[in-house]
């Protein structure tokens, strides 16, 4: 059984991280408010999970000002997209074996 789960990535174990990456896989980018609304999470929860994904180099974070308002934009990196695809493929293989 270990062989089946070896490609399941611990970085995506949490539902919020899974949600962040899912959104970023189908969108070029997403800003803080978009992710917060889509995932139904608090500011602190979203910030901690995006920070964890950034530390793995799975997402990049761009901060800017639009007018006088701060705006934080998230983008899945090439490594992040590859790792997430491998994670999803591993989950699909696990489901097929069941």
Automatic annotation (TrEMBL):
Enumerate the Pfam families for this protein. Answer: HTH_34
The cross-references to PANTHER family, in alphabetical order and at most eight, read: BSL7504 PROTEIN (PTHR37318)
Which species?
A: Flavobacterium qiangtangense
Q: Where is the Winged helix DNA-binding domain?
A: 16-95
This one is known as Winged helix-turn-helix domain-containing protein
Q: Report the InterPro entries cross-referenced here.
A: WH-like_DNA-bd_sf (IPR036388), WH_DNA-bd_dom (IPR027395), WH_DNA-bd_sf (IPR036390)
Upper classification of the source organism reads: Bacteria, Pseudomonadati, Bacteroidota, Flavobacteriia, Flavobacteriales
């Amino acid at each position: 059984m270990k062989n089946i789960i070896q490609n399941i990535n611990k970085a995506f174990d949490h539902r919020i991280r899974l949600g962040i990456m899912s959104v970023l896989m189908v969108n070029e980018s997403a800003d803080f408010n978009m992710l917060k609304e889509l995932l139904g999470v608090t500011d602190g929860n979203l910030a901690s999970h995006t920070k964890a994904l950034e530390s793995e180099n799975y997402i990049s974070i761009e901060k800017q000002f639009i007018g006088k308002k701060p705006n934080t934009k998230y983008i899945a990196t090439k490594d992040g997209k590859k790792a997430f695809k491998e994670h999803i493929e591993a989950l699909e293989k696990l489901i097929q074996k069941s």
